[in-house]
């Protein structure tokens, strides 16, 4: 244990003193300043600033995690690997130390950066008003369809509750009405105990429905456009914006830190640059996996697209699932992060655990005879 | 049977270690046998490429023997408890980049089990013993001169007061004062019961520390015994006469 602590400390020092660490910090500082200075007004500006800052922190944390690839090849080249191998340090500790140090630094960078951003945002009036969010179960897929000649309407009714109500929607244009796309807005009919009203909503995103009384029925208003209902929630009490920003930074850091064992594992077989770049790419794949899987499904439909789909699915299968990065959007939208937000880390943590076990316990190739 | 003081600390039997395959096979060690008792210092001598470093790496468990065996501190070479009680100075002035001298020695102290409360004092002692000044110890190892890198590697090897020291050319690149300083340090450790296996090309280092020597040539033991007898009253400064005699057989 003492040797693991000492090795992790040493690896941390090496990472902090690497020339790339300074470059990374300068780049990150520039990105944070740029995101806080984004143009826009009031609420939209605060949300954009937080989203931009958290995205910059995610990139920085991912690069720090990928930095776990640097040590093993350097030690191999300098002969330090053999030097350390002749000591009593357990093999798993020696191999895992660069990954643990990089993971710790990734979390530290993201959390500290988020704390700084929260402090600056609070001081400059850019804090995102944040409330507790209680998700309402929505059966997926729930598609709202307006009645038309020869077609019955399809609606959704969500349970009653207290507090402001929000839904996440996306349009689905009907094949026979592509011209509707030009309209650019989407209309939603909301019915509650007080009656019905029609909301104009942005084509994609989250809509505040006000504070409806009793159960709410949602219906599509336009026969040319179906509405896909992706989620719904009621908003509870307010929470301090700085706390939410800090938690979001922590979550982003933890998610990206899950790439560190991968970088160290790849570095056992390749150069530091190869392993680092591969890790950064896999983290990118993990962060965009839903969209990539959607693209794979689309590619399947194309002639000759099966290979492309297989490549996409293969990359997604290898990459850690960074679903937890959804916290960036949640925090920017003013939704308080919860235990459920942290639970979304589990697939990435499991991935990191498997990779770390491979890293620490799979023996080296036997010495050449 | 538990290991006793009389058991050799290092025992190498009929060690063969080859590199490469087919016609390109190199027999780096070709039937090497040697043993090292507690509190003894043994010099491994021999021309470049004669198999000294290969033998040392097998003793450390860094290389597996092709055939034959090496036992260290009462078990097969390379066991973790033996490694924890062994100090090693590798052949080249090898470096962990971006680490300061003192940090490197602290790392080895922690890894090799020096209790936390004693670390500071023991690191000071080790740095002092190899003659590395405090301000030098605060600089990155990557910036060290060859001799300074050698000294810090030695400090890292001795900081845990290991039962066995394995030193691959420990004084190469050291100035005469540094060599004498290091030899004095090693003599003190040897007299306190540490066994020392070292390779060297320097007569002064061998004579300054070792009673016995093993002379390798092309992977085989060409001669072994008391160093004074091997040198046979030779008055020339280096090991040239010994090497010539051994080559003639
Ligand atoms: N990893 C390796 N791969 C191939 N050949 C090797 C390897 N290590 C050593 N050898 C060969 O084994 C032989 C013995 O090398 P070794 O390093 O043990 O010599 P040495 O006695 O330590 O020499 P020196 O005095 O130059 O340090 C040499 O011919 C060398 O080329
Ligand atoms: Mg050698």
Provide a compact summary of the structure.
Chain A has 369 residues and is an alpha+beta fold.
Plain-language structure description:
- Chain A has helices at residues 2-17, 19-36, 42-66, 71-78, 80-85, 91-123, 241-257, 260-267, 272-287, 289-301, 306-318, 326-332, 339-343, 346-361; strands spanning 130-136, 142-144, 156-158, 165-173, 185-192, 195-202, 205-210, 216-220, 225-239.
- Chain A is α+β, with helices and mostly antiparallel strands and 369 residues long.
- Chain A has two domains: 2-129 and 240-361, no CATH class; 152-237.
- In chain A, the strands form two sheets. In chain A, strands 1, 2, 4, 7 and 9 form a five-stranded antiparallel beta sheet that branches.
- In chain A, strand 5 (185-192) and strand 6 form a beta hairpin.
- The longest helix of chain A is centred in the first third of the chain and has 33 residues, at 91-123.
- Chain A is elongated, with a radius of gyration of 24 Å.
- Chain B is of the alpha/beta class and 249 residues long.
- Chain B folds into two domains: 7-85 and 163-249, P-loop containing nucleotide triphosphate hydrolases (Rossmann fold, 3-Layer(aba) Sandwich), CATH 3.40.50; 91-161, no CATH class.
- Chain B has ten helices and ten strands.
- Chain B has a six-stranded mixed beta sheet, with helices on both faces.
- The radius of gyration of chain B is 18 Å and the shape is globular.
- The N and C termini of chain B lie far apart (40 Å).
- At the A-B interface, helix 1, helix 4 and helix 5 of A face helix 2 and helix 3 of B.
- Bound molecules: adenosine-5'-triphosphate and magnesium ion.
- Adenosine-5'-triphosphate is lined by residues 19-20, 26, 28, 46, 48-54, 91 of chain B.
């Amino acid at each position: 244990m003492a040797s693991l602590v000492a090795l992790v400390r040493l690896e941390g020092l090496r990472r902090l003193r690497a020339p790339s660490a300074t470059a990374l910090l300068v780049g990150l500082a520039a990105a944070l300043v740029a995101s806080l200075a984004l143009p826009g007004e009031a609420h939209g500006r605060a949300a954009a600033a937080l989203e931009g800052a958290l995205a910059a922190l995610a990139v920085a944390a991912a690069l720090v995690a990928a930095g776990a690839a640097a040590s093993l090849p350097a030690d191999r080249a300098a002969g330090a690997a053999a030097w350390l191998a002749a000591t009593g340090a357990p093999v798993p500790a020696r191999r895992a130390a660069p990954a643990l140090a990089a993971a710790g630094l990734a979390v530290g960078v993201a959390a500290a950066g988020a704390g700084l951003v929260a402090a600056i945002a609070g001081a400059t009036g850019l804090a995102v008003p944040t409330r507790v969010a209680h998700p309402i179960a929505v059966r997926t897929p729930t598609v709202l369809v307006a009645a038309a000649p020869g077609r019955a309407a399809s609606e959704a009714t969500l349970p009653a509750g207290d507090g402001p109500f929000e839904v996440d929607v996306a349009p689905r244009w009907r094949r026979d009405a592509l011209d509707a796309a030009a309209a650019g807005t989407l209309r939603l009919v909301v019915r509650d105990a007080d009656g019905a009203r029609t909301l104009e909503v942005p084509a994609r995103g989250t809509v505040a429905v006000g504070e409806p009384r009793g159960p709410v029925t949602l219906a599509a208003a336009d026969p040319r456009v179906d509405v896909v209902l992706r989620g719904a929630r009621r908003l509870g009490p307010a929470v301090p914006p700085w706390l939410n920003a800090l938690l979001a930074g922590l979550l982003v850091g933890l998610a990206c830190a899950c790439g560190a064992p991968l970088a160290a594992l790849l570095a056992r077989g390749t150069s530091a640059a190869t392993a680092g770049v591969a890790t950064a790419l896999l983290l990118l794949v993990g962060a965009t996996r839903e969209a990539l899987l959607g693209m794979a499904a689309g590619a399947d439909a194309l002639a000759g697209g099966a290979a492309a789909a297989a490549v996409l699915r293969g990359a997604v299968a290898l990459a850690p699932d960074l679903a937890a990065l959804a916290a960036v959007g949640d925090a920017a939208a003013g939704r308080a992060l919860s235990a459920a937000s942290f639970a979304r880390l589990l697939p990435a943590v499991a991935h990191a655990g498997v990779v770390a076990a491979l890293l620490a316990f799979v023996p080296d190739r036997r010495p050449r005879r | 049977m538990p290991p006793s003081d009389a058991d050799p600390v290092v025992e190498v039997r009929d060690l063969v270690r080859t590199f490469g395959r087919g016609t390109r096979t190199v027999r780096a060690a070709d039937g090497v046998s040697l043993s090292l008792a507690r509190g003894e210092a043994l010099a491994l001598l021999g021309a470049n490429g004669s198999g000294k470093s290969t033998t040392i790496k097998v003793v450390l468990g860094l290389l597996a023997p092709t055939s034959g065996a090496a036992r260290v501190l009462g078990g097969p070479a390379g066991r973790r408890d033996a490694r924890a009680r062994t100090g090693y100075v590798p052949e080249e002035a090898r470096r962990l980049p971006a680490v300061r001298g003192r940090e490197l020695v602290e790392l080895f102290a922690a890894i090799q089990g020096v209790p936390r409360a004693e670390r500071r004092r023991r690191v000071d002692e080790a740095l002092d013993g190899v003659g590395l000044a405090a301000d030098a110890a605060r600089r990155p190892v990557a910036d060290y001169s060859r001799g300074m890198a050698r000294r810090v590697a030695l400090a890292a090897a001795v900081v845990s007061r290991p039962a066995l020291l394995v030193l691959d050319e420990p004084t190469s690149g050291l100035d005469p004062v540094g060599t004498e300083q290091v030899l004095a340090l090693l003599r003190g450790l040897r007299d306190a019961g540490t066994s020392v296996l070292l390779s060297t090309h320097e007569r002064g280092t061998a004579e300054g520390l070792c009673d016995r020597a093993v002379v390798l040539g092309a992977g085989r033991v060409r001669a072994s015994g008391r160093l004074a007898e091997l040198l046979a009253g030779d008055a020339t400064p280096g090991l040239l006469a010994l090497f010539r005699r051994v080559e003639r057989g």
